[in-house]
Amino acid sequence: MLTFILDLSIKAPAGVGEIAGQVTNTSYVGNILVALFFLVIIAVYGFFLDPHNRLINLIGVYMGVVVVEFFPFENLFFGGLSLWLAQLLVFSITLFLAAVFLSMTHLLKVVFVKNFLKRWLESGINGFLHGAFLVSFVLSLLPVKFLTQFSPWVLNTFISEKARFWWAILPLAGLLLMRNKSKVGRPPAY
User: Fold this and answer.
1) Of 133, 157, 177, 179, which residue is the least packed, with the fewest Cβ within 10 Å?
2) Count of C-beta atoms within a 10 Å radius of residue 1
3) CB contact at 8 A, 149 and 30
């Protein structure tokens, strides 16, 4: 059903067991790294980030993607770094600087959620969507030789043309749909 919603062109094998085998196949070490990355992002969202910081982090990621897309890498010297490594470095620096700058401005007011389970559900969903966006972008930067560590299912789910579009849009939709409603006298966090 998820593949229908995202309109991805995944060629599913005959059975669910075969799909699970593709995802958990130990010959694809990258799949395990992607799963661990998702767990870390969801935990960070749940333990450390309030709605204000989630929004700042997501804006920083979008800024990083834009900078990497339009940065003149071919005209600058990066000390012998390969192109994909230089792109990851510029993306990380942009993300860090944007997060620091936006958090210092206090443009957005924090509204904490009192309901613990609701906060964790929102954190988990937003963490998953944010993690998928990051995985999609980082995988698109890696060289083809490195991508052989990932199963075709993971590559198709995260770096196909349609998948990259949906993973870039879904984190914003998740934030907008799960934002805290304004209470009398208190504006929403975003």
Assistant:
1) 177
2) 5
3) yes
3-state secondary structure 175-188: HHHCCCCCECCECC
- The pair of three-digit structure tokens given for residue 184, joined into one six-digit string: 């009398």
| pTM metric for this prediction | 0.58
How far is CA 151 from each of CA 22, 28, 30, 55, 134, rounded to the nearest angstrom?
6, 6, 8, 31, 18
Name residue 186's beta-bridge partners: 183
pLDDT in tens, 121-158: 777 888 888 889 988 998 888 888 888 888 888 888 89
Show the tokens assigned to 41. Answer: 């992002």
Place of tokens 């804006």: 59
With 0-12 / 13-18 / 19 or more C-beta atoms within 10 angstroms meaning exposed / middle / buried, residue 189 is buried
